[in-house]
Amino acid sequence: MSHHGTDGACVGWDASGCEGTVHCPPRCPRFVDKEGARWTVRPAVDEDERFLVEMYERFGRSDRAQGLPPVSRSRRVEWVRAMLTEGSNVVAERGGEPFGHAMYTPTDAAVPELAVFVHPDAQDRGVGTELCRHVIADAAAAGREGIELHVETGNRAARSVYRTVGFEVVERRGDLRMRLDLDDPIATEVRWPPIVREGSAEPPAGVPSGDTASVRPPADD
User: Fold this and answer.
1) Whether the predicted pLDDT of 212 surpasses 90
2) Which has fewest Cβ within 10 Å: 10, 58, 89, 98?
3) pLDDT score of 209 more than 80
4) How far apart (Å, rounded) are the C-alpha atoms in residues 105 and 68?
């Protein structure tokens, strides 16, 4: 079944049986976390700047990594604005409020850098992992060659998330540098429509890059 209206818009929350349409983003925006809460992961827009700055104001010292997000408000504003301008950004929102933010930057780099941040109140629920998958899907759809990131050696939780979504350590020099090549199968799998990802259907052989229009043709409601 399609789970989409005639204009391509989603008409239901449970997307597990959705076959996707040409209107869909690289990865389905609907997400249910480990506690059963419903989220939407969508591209960030300029109007999100104020809300993201407010979200980051609630980060404590232990929630920061490699000096980010910046401590002072003026630097946070500059940093968020730069990310929205120079990067490809997504936000995870619940009840219309962002609790997660991820991006790859710069957008025109063959191998841009990933960064992902989840509000302390929303951690350990799978939100960071889902944000990473969206960034991977977006970068693969945009024709990037790979994505890399830097993570502190002692940040075991973040390292576990990155390994889960396919990143491998390529350099150990102070912090760890990890990389995912976007010809890896995971860059295709994250772009499969939900019906395939949920195991209800098999992807056709030779499907390129997880294009939902190629994986499964749109169906009428």
Assistant:
1) no
2) 58
3) no
4) 15
